[in-house]
Amino acid sequence: MAKEKIIQFGQLEAKYNFALNPFPKSRFSKCPVCEGKTGQRKVPLFIHVEPQYPVSLNYTNRYCPRCDLLIAHKHEIEHLLTDLFTKRNPSIIGNRYYIIGTVEKKAWREGVNNSISISDILSHVHDFKGHMEIHMSIGGWVHKDDTPPEMPPPPSTEWVK
Fold first, then answer.
1. Residues 115-159: pLDDT tens digits?
2. Is the backbone of residue 100 left (phi > 0), alpha (psi -120 to 50) or beta?
3. pTM, whole model, 2 decimals?
4. 18, exposed or middle or buried, with CB in 10 Å at 0-12, 13-18, 19+?
5. Distance in angstroms (rounded) separating the CA atoms of residues 107 and 54
6. First vs last C-alpha separation in the chain
7. Nearest 5°: CA angle at 28, between 24 and 29?
């Protein structure tokens, strides 16, 4: 069986596992994987907004050191992106976006003060090791042999066309 080729975006080694939390009322003070306490880690996230708008946001994530897992909150990211693109290019609001990895702090600070080309920033981007999806079940009584029904994530309120 042939191995699937993984395309790497950034030029640095992969760092962190990543999960985007689509549930605004869930804050994850405990890790969804190991159930250990999470802390906070502020890192610049590298986000690609279609068609060709790379953005790096310095964002405070929940972080589990045991699992090396960053958890970002979708509604907060979308709020920051909406604020940013309201000023720059409002037609982009609602486009697909991908959170690809993290940017080195030094390069992010340099990019805040000076415009950096995409080819220059790629030499400072760490892709994520892996992406996780967060699912929640609807509470209530369920027979022990049944699986609880899954709760659908709420729709976006700000990042819409």
1. 777 778 888 999 999 999 999 888 888 888 988 899 999 999 999
2. alpha
3. 0.87
4. buried
5. 14
6. 43
7. 135
